[in-house]
Amino acid sequence: MARKVSSTSGLRPSRLACSARTAKGGSSSSSTPGGGYGMAAGASLAPVSLSPAQAVALMAAVSAAPDADLAAAGVRKIVDVLDPRTRARSLELADRVWVDAPPSPARRVRSALEEAMAEQRVVRIRYTSAQGVTTTRDVEPELFASTGGRWHLVAWCRTRDAMRWFTVSRVVSATVTRTPCTGHTVAEVGEPPPHARPVHGGG
């Protein structure tokens, strides 16, 4: 279902770069009208310098993300520390942008998968395949991968004794166990697609 969001998918992610001064977390609280640099009263972040187009591009990317609920909270903090003029212009522009994103899995499922990944513990999942067959498996999470508009959990499946890709939207339930992963590595997943890259932007 299409939803009206504070976003625009037509703006290039490359336009999201911040100034060096912002990256260093400058202590100045001065405001530059239209430039986005300023510290709002009660804000929890250091000053951020973004143009309205950059701010909306960031909101667009978040709106289409599988963890939009979590990421949106971070974006709100960023918007809050823009100077009032830039914030107003960003929100006005955002009203003119819609993003049609697929429904996300239940937050409890995503939270369990994220916890298992971060803690590197075995997670027990109930998973429905594309053929409609539901099985229960213990898996060791290796990485999350986004391809073809879908997010996948790539994990070592203890049932199949092999690396498997699980479409996150097909995970019916997930429970983190106390069992630590046995040490499989990302290298075992194989070569990534030609244009795939980590989210930090490195190679």
Could you characterize the architecture of this molecule?
This protein has 203 residues and is an alpha+beta fold. Helices cover 26% and strands 26% of the residues. The chain is built from 5 helices and 7 strands. The strands form 2 sheets. A 5-stranded antiparallel sheet has the order 6-5-4-3-7, with helices on one face. Helix 2 packs antiparallel against helix 3 and helix 2 packs across helix 4. The chain is elongated.
Write the layout of secondary structure elements.
Layout lengths: L1 E3 L15 H4 L28 H12 L4 H13 L3 H11 L3 E3 L6 H13 L1 E8 L5 E14 L2 E8 L4 E6 L3 E10 L23
Antiparallel strand pairs: 1-2, 3-4, 3-7, 4-5, 5-6
Helix pairs in contact: 2-3, 2-4
Derived from helix and strand composition plus strand pairing, the structural class reads: alpha+beta
Major sheet size, sense and barrel closure: 5 strands, antiparallel
Helix content: 25-40%
Span of the ends, CA to CA: 34 Å
Give Rg in angstroms.
20 Å
Order of helices and strands: EHHHHEHEEEEE
Tell me the number of strands. 7
Approximate shape: elongated
